[in-house]
């Protein structure tokens, strides 16, 4: 999986694919800060599913709160957020299957009388 912003460090061995869902009605900030030479931070909107790569020992911090304040609400080990290998393979197939064919279609022409 390509993670363009803040990719897993190049010396990391066996990164895992993880999924976190914001099941609250509030915007959350999630961070991983316990991995040397790597900082991961994302905004997760209510109901949003965040799929990301991390090392199994990473800890996902979940911060929530109101304007200009954030409270550490939870810390979740990333190995508990890991997607199963079968699901990882399915996701790769779905990504490839979702790529549309490059078809050239004639524009619809409507004549007005």
Task: Describe the structure in brief.
This is DUF1830 domain-containing protein. The chain is mostly beta strands. The chain is built from one helix and six strands; from the N terminus they run ββββββα.
Describe the structure.
The chain is mainly β and 113 residues long. It has a domain of 68 residues. 12% of the residues lie in helices and 31% in strands. The strands form two sheets. The protein has a four-stranded antiparallel β-sheet with strand order 3-2-5-6, with no helix packed on it. Strands 1-4 form a two-stranded antiparallel ribbon. The termini are far apart. The relative contact order is 0.20.
Can you lay out the helices and strands and say which pair or pack?
Layout: E1 16-21, E2 28-32, E3 40-44, E4 49-54, E5 59-64, E6 71-77, H1 85-97
Antiparallel strand pairs: 1-4, 2-3, 2-5, 5-6
Which class of secondary structure composition applies to the elements?
Answer: mainly beta
Please give the share of residues in helix: 10-25%
Compute the CA-based radius of gyration.
19 Å
Strand order, main sheet: write it out.
3-2-5-6
Low-confidence stretches: 95-111
Taken from the alpha-carbon principal axes, the silhouette is: globular
Query: What is the strand tally?
Result: 6
Oligomerization state? single chain
Determine the N-to-C terminus distance: 53 Å
Query: How many H/I helical runs?
Result: 1
Largest sheet: 4 strands, antiparallel
Beta-strand fraction estimate: 25-35%
The average pLDDT is: 77
H-E order:
EEEEEEH
């Amino acid at each position: 999986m390509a993670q363009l912003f803040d990719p897993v460090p190049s010396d990391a061995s066996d990164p895992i694919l993880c999924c976190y869902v914001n099941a609250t009605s509030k915007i959350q900030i999630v961070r991983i800060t316990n991995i040397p030479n790597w900082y991961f931070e994302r905004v997760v909107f209510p109901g949003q599913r965040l799929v990301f790569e991390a090392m199994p020992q990473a800890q996902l911090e979940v911060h929530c709160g109101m304007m200009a304040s954030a409270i550490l609400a939870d810390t979740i080990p990333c190995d508990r957020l890991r997607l199963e290998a079968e699901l990882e393979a399915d996701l790769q197939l779905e990504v490839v299957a979702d790529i549309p064919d490059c078809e050239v279609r004639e524009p619809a022409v409507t004549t007005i009388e």
